[in-house]
Each structure stands twice: as C-alpha cells, then as structure tokens.
Amino acid sequence: MNKIGKFRVIHQDGIARVGKLSTLHGTINTPIFMPVGTRGCVKSLSPQDLDEIGSEIILGNTYHLYLRPGDDLIKKLGGLHRFSGWYRPILTDSGGFQVFSLSPLRKISDQGVLFRSHIDGSKHMFTPSKVISIQENLGSDIMMVLDECVPYGTDYEYTKKSLALTTKWARECYNARTNSHQLLFGIVQGGFFPDLREESAKQLSAIPFDGFAIGGLSVGEPKDVMFNILEKTVPLLPLERPRYLMGVGKPLDIIKAIEMGVDMFDCVLPTRNARNGTLYTSIGKINIKKQEFKQDESPLDPNCTCYTCRNFSRAYLRHLYTTKELLSYRLNTIHNLSYYLNLVKEARYHIKNKTFSQFKDKIEETFKQS
Amino acid sequence: MNKIGKFRVIHQDGIARVGKLSTLHGTINTPIFMPVGTRGCVKSLSPQDLDEIGSEIILGNTYHLYLRPGDDLIKKLGGLHRFSGWYRPILTDSGGFQVFSLSPLRKISDQGVLFRSHIDGSKHMFTPSKVISIQENLGSDIMMVLDECVPYGTDYEYTKKSLALTTKWARECYNARTNSHQLLFGIVQGGFFPDLREESAKQLSAIPFDGFAIGGLSVGEPKDVMFNILEKTVPLLPLERPRYLMGVGKPLDIIKAIEMGVDMFDCVLPTRNARNGTLYTSIGKINIKKQEFKQDESPLDPNCTCYTCRNFSRAYLRHLYTTKELLSYRLNTIHNLSYYLNLVKEARYHIKNKTFSQFKDKIEETFKQS
To answer: What is residue A303's predicted lDDT score, i.e. its pLDDT?
Structure first.
C-alpha cells in the first residue's frame, strides 16, 4: 500500500501513461473516467450499480451539496461516503464552476465570489477557505481549489488578471487545508493564451499540490483550439503528479487527451446523453428512439457485457424510452458509463502494450461513422 | 413437479390457506402479492431488482401492451418474458378494466367493447376472443377473461344484465383459448348485491377455469361493504382453485382478505406510493419528505433487510426525494415492494403455524398508529 496521495506512473506509451493514485478510500487506476454524481448520487444509479460497472471514483458537486442538503448536515451524518453509500474514492469540485454557470447573480472580488442560490435566491459567499472547509466537511478524497473559469472569448487583460486571482486563491486554498488525507488539486487557467497558460502552470507547480487540473477548456471553443492549448499546457505540469482535464468529454476527446498525457476525466455527457436516449457503442453513437430499432432484438452493443446489453434488446430499450419508463434512464446510464469505463480500461491496456496509437485510430474510425 | 395449473393447498388456519400454484415459468407460493408491471416493467425496477426482493410473479397490463409496443411485436420478439427480461411467472389482465378507466370513449355490446386509445385516439375493439389472442401473443402464465366492472352505485338491474354478459364473455374466453400452458382465470362480478355475486360465482364455477378472481371491489365503496361482499363471495368459489382479489390493497386489507381465504393480490399502491414518498414500514406508514427525517441516520425500517434499508439513511432518502433524484423512485419502490412481499411471506408462515389471527392483530396495530 502506498502513502495517501502517492501517484506512480507504471507504464508509458509516448506521453500517454498508466498510473496508480492512492487515496484514503482506495487506489485509482489512471487514465480514469469519473462519473458525475452531482447531488451525492450519479443520476438514476445506486452505489451497487456503480460498483458493477467498474467505477473507481465518482465526482460530487460542492455547490449543489452545499445548498442541499448542506455540508454541515453531511458532516454530521459521517461524510459524503456514508451519506451516499458509496465507499470508494470521491472527488469534489470547488463549486466555482457552478456559481458561474448556475447562479443568477455573482460578484467576484479578491476575497471570493458572492452569489445567489439558483434554488431559493439566498445569498452566499464562496472564499478559498470556505470551499476547502465545505469539501473537508464532505470528506471527499480529492478536493479542488477555487478558481475563476473565464468564458471563451475573454480578452487578454481580463484573463491575465483573473489568472493572478486564481493563483492567489489556489495558495489560500492550500493554506486552508487542515489535513493531508484529503488530497488537493490545483487548477491551471489562462484562457486561450499560451503564455498565460504557461504562467499559470508555473505558478501553480510551485505549490505542492497532489495533482493538477486543467480548467477553462471545453467552454465553447473549437476542438482544435482546445487541443492546441492542452498540448502546450500538459508538458508544463509536474510529471510525477496526476493531471485532470475538467469537463471533457466525448470518447475521442478523452482518447486524444490521454495521448497528450492526461490522467483523469469527468463529464456529464455519458449520463446526460443516456437520459436523452443517445448511447455510445463499439459501432458508434445510437439514438435508441429511432423507428429502426422497433423490432430489433439484438443487444444495444454486441461487444458490451454490461447488465443492459446482457439482458435486453434494442426493441425493449426503445419501448422503455418511448413510454418514458423510469427504468429507461437507468439501463441507458449503466450502458453509457460502462462504455466510458471500458474505454479508459482499454486505453490503459493499450498504453501498457505500446499500441495506443492504433487504439486511437480505432476509436476515431468508430465515431467517424456515426 | 406438478402439472401446469395444479394448485395444492398445503396448510390452513381457519379459512386462510397456504398453497402452491404451478405455472409454465415456475411455482408460486400463495398467499402472494403481485407487483404491477404495467408496460412490461415494474416502474423503476429491473428484473434483477424484482428477483432480489423476492417477487414470484408480476402483472402486466394487456391494454397498455396491446397499444404499445403491440402484442404482435412482443410475440415476434419471443413473448413478454423474453422482451422484458423477466423469466418468472407473469399474469396479464384482460385489458377491460383499463378500457373502462382510461379510454375517452367506450361502447359496450354483446360482442365486446369498442374504445379509443388514450394515447392517440385510435379506435379498437376488445372481444373475448381478441383479449385471449392478445394474452396468448404476450405469452403470460395466467390470463384473465374479459369482464365488465361496474362502478360502485350501479343499480340492480344494470348489474344483473352486466353480470350475464360477463358470464357469456367468460365462456367465450374459455372457448377461445388455444393452449392449456397458459392458465385462465374467470372473474366474479355482481356489484354489491350478494345474490348477484352468488349467481356469478355459480355460473363461473361451472366453467373449468384454473382460478377465480373477484373483480369489481375496491372501486370506491366503504371498506366494510367490500369485506361484506368478499366474505360472502369466497365460500362460493371452488376450494381447490386459487382465488385472486383484483386491485387490493393496503397491507391490512390484504391480511383481512387472506383471513377470508384469498390467495392472490395485485395493487399499484406500494409502487405508486413509493414514487410519492409514502413508505410502508414495520412501524407504520412514513412520509419520507417530512422535515423530521432531515438528520435521521436510521434506516427507513429498522426491521427490514431490503437493499434500501441495508444501505441508506432516512436522511439520504429524504434528500433524494426532495431533490427529485431518479434513484429515489427506485430505492423507495424496492422498499415498499419488499414490505408487501415480506407481509405475504409472514402471512404464509403464520398460517402454517396457526398463528394468523395474532399476526393480523399485529398488522392492525401497526397501521392504527400511522
């Protein structure tokens, strides 16, 4: 067993790498995809479901859990693991991103960000020390620093100022932490300006974080712009620390980012799309509501071994979806997350075997057709 | 192994009895509760969930499945068991009840009932032979005859005429059946007139059905009126055939009916109430959304061993319910059905031990408090 926070790279293929990250609730194999469990629950799934599809770590949203049911309550009930019945690793974000995307009002200052709840309009303030305190109450295995995520198109000057604030907040978060059993990751910002990304990466690398996230990408910019920034940012981060690309993405995006040396991913895409009937398979993307599946007795994905694919036909999944049966959301989510978790598992296999480039070609081919 | 359709009474306590009914997909222990799987799915549950909570038989609705996805399609895909992934016994109703409760138009004649779909307004006709043909396409283990269920308050004359029609249809259904692997139950009607119930029971008993249902109760009448009719009807049915009280009911109603010699039950109450946050427990009915459960870390029911009670607190269940998480519906449904299935299991135990009367007192006490 390794020290909590220890990250070991055990295989490499080019810059792509396979690693192991030790946390208080177990070791995570990287590259890894983290299903999003916004309010202490991955929508429609139980902890048993998550176990069965091979989830190693899930994500919880600090903003949502702070508002409902409240981090104090969760602490009182023994922390988020016990509250939700999920006893493997949990990463929590800082809540900053949701403040910027959900709050009807936000006022940013050196101290932090003042916002209104999207639920009842009540006023709240997130400061660096506050978001650490909340995440310590939640008891997550990996905490994230408070940062400002600037929209695509923000000018150089604002981005530079914002980046300085993000670094200041990162340092304050680091200093606010009261225990080292909960890991803390810094977040690189800097918008779409390579020199600012470099500045951010350098400043953050000087703080002994347990890992580094790349934030502010996948916010509406063209794909090539994102990968261009990513390619330049990753090499500036410490080799011996895990790298987490926040909020990305589609299967091929994940594979491309792994090729560039990214270790961790989260995204609502597989879960949200599942609820909309869009399903990822080894033969491309499928929309289960299509008429062509009405009499189709084959499994959703002939190459998948998840509960959904083992037991049900496309015809039944279409029936559940078109009649809005609650089971539809769960069976679709089980499949899409199985697809994503299998994708990163295969990625690990191909890195180990030095065949990652061929694997990437295969995934590229799969999603070209659909 | 017994012949398909064989019903054996193995224990008795007064008129209450424990039996075993053989069907093509396995043997059912009676008294039994049958979860309602309207459209080929018990709302929010997978077949695995149903297995885990100990369901022995579920119900499917002919009206709904005929309209969507269609019995022809289900037949083509191998029948309802294969379509839904549930390989234990299934009972299907005749569809008549839904025609009367859901269709915006219905026109009854000697031949059958003409109705409009509540989904798209299209016109359809259910005749005795049609509903048997649909149920044969579905491949259910127990089929029900087409009947007319008259509302509470219907006069003597109409009820008498309707009863004659129900008997005529029952005979036609019996003659329309093309195989004996799918059992067929008759349905006693006669409204709230003891002499008409007697007439119905006598006429139906003359047809060699595999079992007999008591229909037309729990349609808005006072409880004592229902039990009065039930008490007079059951003794008129053949001792050696299972008796099924349709659409009943609350836990105590089921226990009282078992005491009167009923063997089978179905009701949407446990599943529908689960989705509304109303939960049945060994200490009475609980409304999970109540403020008092906000910090309650105890299990929903301290005496229950279901997945929900083993793994989650009332506080978490309240959180899921108030934030409308999809998992809420499933965890609540798992619990309520576990409660119902455990209730009939305990009933069987107490009949075997000749302690049924004490058991009834206990259940009476439990629900007096809530």
So the answer is: 97
Is the interface score ipTM higher than 0.90? yes
Query: Using CA of residue B25, residue B85, residue B59, residue B49, what is the dihedral sign?
Result: positive
What are the structural domain ranges in chain A?
A: 30-266, 274-368
Q: Which of B69, B311, B323 sits opposite A68 (nearest CB)?
A: B323
3-state secondary structure of B107: strand
pLDDT of amino acid B2:
81
**Which class is B34-267 in CATH?**
alpha beta
Question: A291: nearest CA in chain B?
Answer: B69
Give the CA dihedral A259, A262, A266, A267, nearest 10 degrees. -40
* Choices 3.20.20.105, 3.10.310.10, 3.30.450.40, 3.40.640.10: CATH for A30-266: 3.20.20.105
What is the C-alpha separation between B319 and A217, in angstroms, rounded? Answer: 32
Report the gap between the CA of A43 and the closest CA in chain B (Å): 6
Nearest-CA distance from B292 to chain A in Å? 13
Query: For chain A, which residues score pLDDT lower than 70?
Result: 1, 369-370
Quick one: pLDDT at residue B104?
Answer: 82
Question: How many beta carbons lie within 10 A of that of residue A240, not counting itself?
Answer: 10
- Residue B24's nearest CA partner among B48, B50, B5, B51 is B5
What are the residue ranges in chain B where pLDDT is below 70? Answer: 369-370
Q: Which chain B residue has the Cα nearest residue A316?
A: B83
